[in-house]
Design goal:
Oligomer: single chain
Radius of gyration: 33 Å
Helix content: 55-70%
Shape: elongated
Distance between the termini: 131 Å
Number of helices: 11
Length: 347
């Protein structure tokens, strides 16, 4: 009977202690979060409750499973299993803590910084740093698990003897992957492109939605996602409309008759711009930029705070000015003469 009660008591006591410790930890973090509203760190750390409980429970069982007589005929296997679970849960807890610290730092920085470009730059950097830390923790945890098996230690010693040759082979085989990895780090700290930037790549206009260590995702205006290797942005030219500020200048073109009332069009353009909330007031003008035997090309220059507002502004100006011409000056629209030409003098 004792052989049954002792394992059940140890396992049950470990679970109860784990639940109580998790509840106390969550209570302390909630109180700290309520007292320190200036930082979201304590609230984010509440996500660590589950991995903390797994680490604590596994540690208690790992320290007492032999004395408790849990599966005495398979003590070695039980110890190996608990060790592997402990390593994995510790890595899980480390990743959660690092993520909470990074997210808290970014949230506090974004709350006090008014420069949107700098906020997006920091967001890109902390995202990539978080991914690097997660990858390192996973690799170290996997290596620690493998080293718990004695045969893997011998394999590791033999691999170290030929590390030079293996390094060369791995470098050649993973050349593209390593290139993308270093390109991702270059993007993060070189500040060439950031999450939220408006870019034009391969004649596609969109906004950078995600940046990882190997690929970058651009969300186009029609909700498509273009996934590209990050090495593209370090080796080929592309347009970044958010670089140096999001403000933009755009143009609107019309092809009109030579008799178009240009002065009245300039006045009407100013009235239209004043009514449109997308116009930022920096500039707005109209001029004739070209002429053909049948029409003149009229160009309006307008400004907006970002690419999205500029597109809306250009469409609205084009539509409203055409409507005004159709209503008040229809003769200014382009037309093709169908009457016979006047006879040449003296003919």
């Amino acid at each position: 009977m004792e052989n049954v009660l002792r394992p059940v008591t140890v396992i049950g006591g470990s679970l109860v202690a784990t639940l109580i410790a998790g509840w106390l930890l969550d209570l302390l973090l909630r109180r700290a979060d309520a007292r320190h509203t200036e930082t979201p760190l304590w609230g984010l750390l509440r996500r660590c409750r589950l991995p903390f409980q797994v680490v604590l429970c596994t540690s208690l069982l790992r320290a007492s499973y032999r004395q408790a007589g849990i599966l005495p005929d398979h003590a070695f296997g039980v110890g190996r299993f608990l060790t592997l679970v402990l390593i994995g849960s510790a890595a899980w807890l480390a990743v959660r803590i690092a993520t909470a610290a990074v997210d808290s730092t970014y949230a506090r920085y974004a709350a006090v910084t008014e420069d949107d470009a700098r906020v997006r730059r920091v967001r890109t950097q902390v995202t990539l740093i978080q991914r690097v830390v997660t990858a390192l923790v996973v690799v170290v945890a996997a290596a620690a698990m493998l080293l718990t098996f004695p045969p893997m230690r011998a394999v590791g010693a033999s691999l170290l003897a030929s590390a030079g040759v293996l390094g060369i082979v791995a470098g050649i085989a993973a050349q593209a992957a390593l290139g993308n990895l270093f390109a991702g780090l270059q993007i993060a700290f070189g500040d060439t492109v950031r999450i939220g930037d408006t870019v034009v790549v391969d004649k596609e206009w969109g906004r950078v939605e995600e940046i990882t260590l190997t690929f970058l995702t651009v969300r186009t205006w029609d909700e498509r996602r273009i996934t590209m290797p990050v090495s593209y942005f370090t080796s080929k030219p592309y347009e970044n409309w958010s670089r140096g500020g999001a403000q933009m200048t755009g143009t609107v073109f019309w092809h009109l008759d030579h008799s178009a009332p240009l002065d009245l069009m300039r006045e009407q353009l100013q009235e239209i711009l004043k009514e449109l909330p997308e116009w930022d007031g920096r500039g707005g003008g109209l001029a004739v930029t070209d002429t053909t035997p049948h029409t003149v090309q009229v160009r309006a220059v307008v400004t907006a705070k970002d690419a999205d507002d500029l597109w809306t502004l250009r469409c609205a100006v084009r539509e409203r000015l055409i409507t005004w011409l159709v209503t008040h000056h229809p003769h200014a629209l382009p037309h093709i003469a169908t009457t016979e030409a006047s006879p040449r003098p003296g003919a």
